[in-house]
Amino acid sequence: MSAEEVRELLIDELNPMAGACAVMIAHLIDAPDEPPATREDLLAMVTAAMESGRAPIGPLEYAEEEIDYGLRTNVPVASITTSADGQVSLRLALALSGNTCIGVGGNRYGYQPHLGGRVSPWTVLLPDVEAGLAELVVYIDERAKLMGYHGRVRATLELISAEPVHPGTIHGDSGRVVVGEPIEAFEPLTFEYSIDMPAQSLQSLVYEVATQVARRFGADEPQFLTRP
């Protein structure tokens, strides 16, 4: 299964026709394609990440709504959903392929508590994207440990939406969300590293990628991640 196929699994789970979603996919460049990943592989990765205390990160960590967990029967795809007022307020999705690809994505469908509830479904908060990046790196690490993988990683971040994305940032003084001018096309960001890169260097790399995202959102620096 290719990175594109994992991307499609996430899109199918998150439905960008209903709201802008962030999708992050990692390719373990030097891993063999076989054997194909299973639901058990996905569960082992998630369990290891949660037991380590490194996941979840971001909106799910602070969710007060009821949380529902889903796991597909035919492919290694899991979803985590919260609801507010009878409507989905957040959906996160994870997907695996045969040893080579890991996918993480999320969609709020316009539910933004910082903005007073429901807003345009095309709004994406910068801190959410940063949290997704951080969580992707955690899952990459746990998957690599389970596989005994020590090779290279290529990761790509996209914002996928049926309409231009409305970038949301946090005002430094008031703490309120500021929604900037719509982004007509968000060019995917790609970065590479070795799985054995020192932790401090990897944190610096992720922070640099988050800085690039922040500038596209109209902010000077990341708003969730701190400088290593």
UniProtKB/TrEMBL annotation:
It comes from the Bacteria. This is Uncharacterized protein. The lineage of its organism: Bacteria, Bacillati, Actinomycetota, Actinomycetes, Micrococcales.
